[in-house]
Structure prediction request, 95 residues.
Amino acid sequence: MITIEEYKKTPRPKVVMTWAPHPRPLPQAVPNSFAEWMNATDYDFVITHPEGYELAPEFVGNAKVEYDQMKLLKEPTLYMPKTGLLMQAIITDRY
Prediction:
């Protein structure tokens, strides 16, 4: 959240967390924690992923869930791609 606060250009930035399918089940501690933190903010938080890769509802909270990843990759202001246990912020010009 510190990075978002330092670089945001709008009062309520859109933050999108996404991930791709993986052949093995992976731990969800990092995305669960990130979702909890984002739901505690006033950010426009969206989770996008392939169907069947959902987080537990208690972590999704009030986030919008969108299965069409390509739709959201064209419009968000901050991406949080999950790759295994690594999460990296990619800040765009529209952020």
The chain has a mean pLDDT of 78. The first strand starts at residue 14 and ends at 19.
